[in-house]
Amino acid sequence: MQVGNARYLTEKDLPDSLPVFPLTGALLLPAGHLPLNIFEPRYIAMFDAALSSNRLIGMVQPAMHEGAVKGEHPDLCQVGCIGRITSLAESGDGRYIVSLEGVCRFRLIDEIAGHKPYRSYRITPFITDLACQEEQTSVDRSALLASFKSYLVANKLEADWESIEKASNLTLVNSLSMMAPFGAPEKQALLEAPDLKTRAETLIAITEIVLARDFGDSDNMIQ
C-alpha cells in the first residue's frame, strides 16, 4: 500500500509498537483519510514524536464493555488502525490541524511502561490489509449504493454521484464507513469486519437498522 511517499508492503515495513490516540467515535480505515484537531499537550507531544520518527500513530477507541475503566487512562478496544501523518499545520493558537491516512489495522498486545505523557503499545499489524486491493471484486457494489441512496433520501441529503461512480470499491466502502454518523459500537464493528466484503455487508445492515428505527420501513424509500 502506498501512503504519501511511503510504501508498506510487508510486516517488516511496519513498527512493532506505536503511540496510540484514544478517541471515541473516530474511525480510520486502510486508505481512508481522517482529519484531526489536536490541542491537548500530551497529544501535541505524541505528534511531535511521530513526525521525528516514522510519522505513524495508532487510532483506537476507548473500550465500551460494561465495567471498562474510563478517565485519563481508559481501557481500550483491542483493534485499531495505524495512521500515517500526511499533513500537519499549526493553527497559531497552539493547535495542530492534522490529516491521517490509514495504513492497516492492528491488534493491541500490551502497554509499554514509560514516562512519556501519551500511551504506547506493542502491536500486531493486520498484514492482509496491505493487499486489500485484491478484495474489491467481492463487494456487492449495487447493494451498497442502494443502501446509501436510501439513507440520503430518508435524510433529505444529496451526494456527488459522479465522484461516487468513479470511486473504487475499496474507497467507496471505507469512505462511507468512516463518514457514516453511527455510534462508537457500530464504528468498531465496521473496523473489526474481517474483510472488505464483510465490512460492506455490515455497513448495509447497520444502515438498514438505523433507517428502520428512525424512519420505519425503508424498503420503498428508493423510487
Notes on the protein architecture:
The chain has helices at 41-51, 141-154, 161-166, 169-179, 184-192, 196-215, and strands spanning 2-3, 6-7, 17-22, 33-38, 56-60, 79-90, 96-112, 119-125. By secondary structure, it is of the alpha+beta class. The strands form 2 sheets. The protein has a 5-stranded mixed beta barrel with strand order 3-5-6-7-8. Strands 1-2 form a two-stranded antiparallel ribbon.
What's this, in brief?
This protein is an alpha+beta fold and 223 residues long. It has helices at 41-51, 141-154, 161-166, 169-179, 184-192, 196-215; strands spanning 2-3, 6-7, 17-22, 33-38, 56-60, 79-90, 96-112, 119-125.
Low-confidence stretches: none
Count of DSSP-assigned helices = 6
Q: Structural class given helices, strands, pairing?
A: alpha+beta
Number of strand elements: 8
Q: How confident is the prediction overall: mean pLDDT?
A: 90
Distance linking N and C termini? 39 Å
User: So what's the overall shape?
Assistant: globular
Q: What Rg do the Cα atoms give?
A: 18 Å
Oligomer: single chain
How many strands, what sense, and barrel or not for the largest sheet?
A: 5 strands, mixed, barrel
**What level of helicity do the residues show?**
25-40%
SSE arrangement, N to C: EEEEHEEEEHHHHH
The largest sheet has its strands arranged as: 3-5-6-7-8
Strand content: 25-35%
